Amino acid sequence: MQIPDRVMPGLLKNVVERLPAKPPAWLLVQTLNQLLKREILLADMSLLAGRLFRVEVADLGLNLFFSASEQRFMVSDVSADVDLCLSANTADFMKMLLRQEDPDTLFFNRRLKIEGDTELGLIVKNLLDSIDWSTIPMMKSLVKQ
């Protein structure tokens, strides 16, 4: 399934911005923790522990805050003092997950923004690129299309 280059309509952004961010952040954290548990996400958690992250889905106005310990990821409260922020539009995040675009290409084309700790940003970007998303049941159906 080829993901088209488009941003979500402004009306959808107006709705999503008003919704609580914790449920989607919880879903992201649960997914990351399952990937860790199944050893699909091969993260050196000591490099991520004690750090605060924000994933911004820019075209939806959605900000997901989470942190890491030595063992797992956890939902965090909204904070301006994040160690790392990854920001992209929905289509670009989907392209990255489906391996239609790699994080480097998105970054150098200024479609993936990485702000904060530079070293941490490289670690997370490389970690995202190392995940074989086709081994995840939910993603298998998307990859096949």
TrEMBL record:
Domain annotation SCP2: ranges: 32-129
Annotated metabolic or biological route of this protein: Cofactor biosynthesis; ubiquinone biosynthesis
One annotated GO biological process: ubiquinone biosynthetic process
InterPro entries membership: SCP2_sterol-bd_dom (IPR003033), SCP2_sterol-bd_dom_sf (IPR036527), UbiT (IPR016830)
Any single Pfam family the record assigns to this protein: SCP2
Keyword 4Fe-4S: no
The entry's keywords: Ubiquinone biosynthesis
Family note: Belongs to the UbiT family.
Protein's job: Required for O(2)-independent ubiquinone (coenzyme Q) biosynthesis. Likely functions as an accessory factor.
Name of the protein in question: Ubiquinone biosynthesis accessory factor UbiT
Protein source organism: Snodgrassella alvi
